[in-house]
Amino acid sequence: MGTEAGDHHRLRALSARHLHGVGGAAAEVNLSARRPFAEKVWSDLAETLFPDDPFRGFGALPPAKRALGTLKYFVPVLDWAPRYGLAKFKYDLLAGVTIASLAIPQGISYARLANLPPIIGLYSSFVPPLLYAVFGSSNNLAVGTVAAASLLLASTIETEVTAEENPELYLQLFYTAAFFTGLFQTALGVFRLGLIVDFLSRSTITGFMGGTAMIIILQQLKGLLGMRHFTTKTDIISVLHSVYHYRHEWKWQSAVLGICFLLFLLSSKHLRKKLPKLFWVSAIAPFMVVVIGGVFAFLVKGDEHGIPIVGNLKKGLNPLSISQLTFQSRHMKTAVKAGLLSGILALAEGIAVGRSLAMVKNEQIDGNKEMIAFGIMNIAGSFTSCYLTTGPFSKSAVNFHAGCKTPMSNVVMSVCIMLVLLFLAPLFKYTPLVALSSIIVVAMIGLIKVKEFCHLYKVDKFDFCICMVAFLGVVFFTMVTGLSASVGLSVVRALLYVARPTTCKLGSIAGSETFRDVKQYPQAKSVPGILVLQLGSPIYFVNAGYLRERILRWVDDEEDLGKGIGHDLQYVILDLGGVTSVDNSGVGMLLEVHKSLERRGITIALTNPRLEVTEKLVQSGYIRDVLGEEWVFLTVKDAITACRYALQMSRSKGEDEV
Amino acid sequence: MGTEAGDHHRLRALSARHLHGVGGAAAEVNLSARRPFAEKVWSDLAETLFPDDPFRGFGALPPAKRALGTLKYFVPVLDWAPRYGLAKFKYDLLAGVTIASLAIPQGISYARLANLPPIIGLYSSFVPPLLYAVFGSSNNLAVGTVAAASLLLASTIETEVTAEENPELYLQLFYTAAFFTGLFQTALGVFRLGLIVDFLSRSTITGFMGGTAMIIILQQLKGLLGMRHFTTKTDIISVLHSVYHYRHEWKWQSAVLGICFLLFLLSSKHLRKKLPKLFWVSAIAPFMVVVIGGVFAFLVKGDEHGIPIVGNLKKGLNPLSISQLTFQSRHMKTAVKAGLLSGILALAEGIAVGRSLAMVKNEQIDGNKEMIAFGIMNIAGSFTSCYLTTGPFSKSAVNFHAGCKTPMSNVVMSVCIMLVLLFLAPLFKYTPLVALSSIIVVAMIGLIKVKEFCHLYKVDKFDFCICMVAFLGVVFFTMVTGLSASVGLSVVRALLYVARPTTCKLGSIAGSETFRDVKQYPQAKSVPGILVLQLGSPIYFVNAGYLRERILRWVDDEEDLGKGIGHDLQYVILDLGGVTSVDNSGVGMLLEVHKSLERRGITIALTNPRLEVTEKLVQSGYIRDVLGEEWVFLTVKDAITACRYALQMSRSKGEDEV
């Protein structure tokens, strides 16, 4: 019986091969195609790390030009500076002055948000923009500190030491964190691991930013109410509890002034929406609030009448802080943690902002190159009394609308800040804290994107969940909790896509040439006795078990169906066109399915395996030793023709025997 | 100019639609197909959690039969017991006695490996097999303790308390860990989360098992050399250092006896390879070693002459241990950690063994059902002085070869162990420790699969890396390190597949009906002015950025190529047949690419979007409002025909204008 079955099998195979040879002409799957190992690894690496192929077209150049090109790639200023002229400078000057007027209040505000001396915020708007102008490749980005990362740094470092306990150590940890942020960002850029940022999906960022904006606004209750005591926690419950607990500290003077400022800022923002050409009004409004508030506080001696002010600001440029970096293992752990977390966050914001603005101008941004620029800027910043900087959305948008042409606008801003540091800093002493708080509140309101939440809910419920996890996690727990829970959920989703790939049964439509999912196209017809299955996605350890069970279930279903109409299932055709790769477990799965179907008397045929899959299947011996080369076809149509022919042969033989 | 371009665009679209309507006949992409939300969620959940569709065919049955079917599903003994008879029992009796003879030495050995009183090993071979016989669905699995999980439990629990410090608490933590293992396994089974086990790839398991076998063998140096002091660490360096450090404790008597036993066991194993029919010799060889060793140690008073023995074993069945479970938060954390880790490991081994043996007999194993059986068995075990049990490979293979027919062989083994516990336990007092060590060594040698390592190296270098990380991690660090590093690497690989999906340029072969990767089929021809790209895998946040850059690079390359031969690129056809799903970021990416290409004057067409993708693209407004329905085609051929037609139209119009 064994030999008879063997004969039968051989016959079918032969007939199939025969037909295949005649009908298929030159169109066969090339089973001997195999790339050398080095080439395979190299092309995989290149795809993974250099998807944008940054050195495109360099191959053809002479060595000197190639070196210059590479240098220009890493130091973009060499590329644009020679072509720079007065025509562009006019635009950049205007944009630079505009963002400088925004940088002063924002710098002071965000430094206060991080419980740092306000002057650090100004320092951080001086050195980093200069460096970005040299190494950065975005023409629209304006460099500065950001609210979310400031609060994240503060809340992480406060687990180790608070600003009240030991202000010096607290500040040192900020510098150290910035140093590690820089190292980390540079390393990511150099090793081209920009794809880490890809794991922060848009939904995660939307939810995280919204939640962060929410808790930052809550933090401003301290400034708006003129309170002196507050919690170091950030979640809504602790904050509201502390606001209520210290209610005897509330100062009506601060509150009234705060409401005035808020109304002024909000109406300037509204104006911008109505008349986009007047964007500069809303751009310099924060600066005006600071100036007006300062003059007012000076006139009425605000600090003695319930309007706390910023206090002394030292004249002079950034002092060196390289000696203040602390590498004692006890504190370093916190600094590293704070640096990495805020570094990823800062990268995500900076790169996203750069990309979306570049897209409007039809320019290209190289994420990995940007990372190196951010990294250099933060390392140098940590040596010169700056804390973490990146390309914040609000400032960059203003820069863009003000008509910036090159990173030169950052240089202009930097020069403005330098002048302020050298001559005007003491004047900002009288800035009321409530002015800073209202500036932050208004900046943050725009980040809670209710419309985007609604859009997500409509289009994709799972994305909405991911977004809400980030939002609620940040608001009710901590920023790190919200972010990591949301990223975790996204990764689980990504893995689920991989673990449960779609399979479908194909039927022919439009004259038996085209094969499509019978569920999607109910008019698609299948051939009795032959089941065509399409597998999508790579086959490997995560989904091998699932696919085995799923294929067998398709076969069971088809057999049940066939019994009704008296047709035994004899062939299963697996369309591998969508299978981009296969690993050891995947090959094992195909082998198991093959054996399992063979025992039921069902023959397997493969169609359209891709290059990588063919390599693996040949190398592991599956195609040659188990399946037989004659059962690999280029198209589903070829496979069906061969199976039909073999079916007829075996039926007519069966009738002969009868 | 804007309106002119608009006109032009409209014309092209119209002509395409016209042609599409004529040529495509009934074959169009159904853009209005949309599944209700509930149906979508339900089908996704069913695919994720019930890939094997366990209640298949129940729908048609009357309620009473359906209930009985469900009961039989969860308690398989109801299914097979009524059909059980003497014919099968003869086989099960033989198999049961054989595995009982293996269970005694293995039980004692593995309990010693975990630094537990040896009698716990015998207890653990009594209750759990009985329960498995009721709830288990594998006919081949033999239940018992396993070496790897024993060592893992010991090394985890020893971070909290060592067996010497507080033997009672140590034992209690083992019971508690078993309890949590059981809870965890049951929960996984009930919530059908068996896919967690899928993340332990074959390569990870091969490497981990090999590494574990290695360190277990190293642990046996203590027994083989008759030493009294030893390290509690498991890594090779600590162990070898401690063996050298306590070299004055080495006993030549133990070593000589050990070598004799090893030679005996190895030759019995060799015999089995040569003459498979004599498998029972190697199956009872460990038992013989225990008996011979015991008699020898009794005769020469081994314990006084450098041959340490097991020591007192209490007569009697398992005492209840339910009151010994400890839920103090301090200790519980360790117990939970140990329980979960060893639980996953035990599941992976048990299910893999069950599946691979079932496959030989062409039976089916439901992984989730097995998890529930393992879970119940471990919960009940933790109440009756047993520690973690599963279906170990060695015992199950012996069971299989001895001809077992049903889980009844586990009952037979259980009865044998019961008799031993009731009457013979004290006799095993004289078992020399060196006998147990040699039994373990021989059992472990087979788990270091050098051939499999070589095979992996040959077929897949990355799989080989994953395997080696597990192996070296276990040998040089800890078991948890090795396992988690290897799983981490596998997951990174899975995510990389997802983050860097393959894209390729298609060309037509075999008469312009079939489109294939031009890299794989160099004879494939492309149409000038039209670029056909195939995207594989789902498009979502992880790879959206990459795909955008990759598509634009393909376009750049094609434009460079076109310049050479004087053909401008005018159309990009994206074949979405391999795209199984798309999320919010993915839709955003398509939109960005669309805008970017539009600015360059290139039109996009989509072909063959699948059901889920069509839904999302329609819902988000991309197809209707941005792309236009007329640019969605069923096949690449249709799309090319339409593009060619539009190209000709625009060219002839251009000539007219000239």
UniProtKB/TrEMBL annotation, chains A, B:
It comes from the Eukaryota. Residues 520-643 form the STAS domain. SUPFAM superfamilies: SpoIIaa-like. It comes from Oryza meyeriana var. granulata. InterPro entries: S04_transporter_CS (IPR018045), SLC26A/SulP_dom (IPR011547), SLC26A/SulP_fam (IPR001902), STAS_dom (IPR002645), STAS_dom_sf (IPR036513). Gene3D superfamilies: STAS domain. CDD domains: STAS_SulP_like_sulfate_transporter. NCBIfam families: sulP. The chain crosses the membrane at residues 93-110, 141-157, 169-191, 203-221, 278-300, 371-390, 411-428, 434-450, 462-483. The keyword Transmembrane applies. This is STAS domain-containing protein. It is a multi-pass membrane protein. GO terms for molecular function: secondary active sulfate transmembrane transporter activity.
